Amino acid sequence: MSIAIVTDSAAALPPELAARAGVTVVPMWLTVQGMPEPEGRRSLEELVVQDNVSTSAPTPGEFEHAIKDTSRASDGVLVLTIAGSMSATYQSAVVASQAVGGEVRVVDTATAGGAEALVVLAAADAAASGASLDEVEARALAVIERVRLVATISSLDHLVRSGRVPGIAGWAGRRLNINPLFEFRGGAVRRLRPALSREAALDRIVQLVRRDAPLGGEQPNRLHVAALHALARDVADDLLGRITETEEPATSFVGEFGPVMVVHTGPGLAGLAWWWEQPG
Question: Considering 4, 18, 231, 276, which has the largest number of Cβ atoms within 10 A of its Cβ?
């Protein structure tokens, strides 16, 4: 049994990890100064200084090509997409799967970035073990229920402009000089209690990871974690370092948010995505 995994570039899955896991990544699209281009053509540093950058989903045709290409050497294909609440990517993948037919499933991960990547890697791990399409899909759905993404940004202005949080939240952040924290889960951005400094915000994110660890059990839980950033690699490295001081993650990596995400959040974002796996 061989199941192929397809995802989109909003997962911020490092290319070397995608290659190692055998995951096919379909790029999202950007429009820069009126000209469309696939995500990944320019560096994030180039894009954040551009005005009028917008984002769009891959076309059904692009997903159809990826599904057909991967299905030649597999018994089924599982497509995992960014949250449908943020993008039309899920719908594009569904249209493509219907056009291809056969053993193809499409799952909305209800998240993005490193959290989406952790779902993808868990599905790819199940596929590599010889699991059936039903089993690989079930694994992905189980992780979607557990995975969390919590991050901090210097300002909520970008999220306010994108309509993801109420405008008053951005106003408070500017006036009080607080450090906003937010969680992206279940397809929605949720504001968390803000911190009074960047350091306090990072401390709270690390504490949330540790508090999430299931209690009890004779065998240790396995942590899967991704440190995420947008032009803040040193902060992401520090966050992952704090986690590995006390834990030995089964999965860990540092990933940069892609331009499609940073258009909505702005640069300087840093956080963690994680889920805890209980033995058995």
Answer: 4
**Terminal C-alpha separation, the chain:** 22
pLDDT digit string (tens) for the chain, length 280 residues: 699 999 999 998 999 999 999 999 999 998 888 888 888 888 888 877 777 778 889 999 999 999 999 999 999 999 999 999 888 999 999 999 999 999 999 999 999 999 999 999 999 999 999 999 999 999 999 999 999 999 998 666 665 565 555 554 554 555 556 788 889 889 888 888 888 888 999 999 999 999 999 886 667 889 999 999 988 899 999 999 999 999 999 999 999 887 777 776 677 889 999 999 987 6
User: E strands along the chain, which residues?
Assistant: 3-8, 23-26, 29-32, 35-38, 53-56, 76-81, 104-108, 148-152, 179-185, 188-195, 222-229, 251-256, 270-277
One-letter identity of residue 171: W
Domain 3-146 has CATH 3.40.50.2300: no
What topology is assigned to 148-277 in CATH? Hypothetical Protein Tm841; Chain: A;domain 3 (3.30.1180)
**Hey, do 3-146 and 148-277 end up sharing a CATH topology, with the first three levels equal?**
no
Q: Where are the domains of the chain?
A: 3-146, 148-277
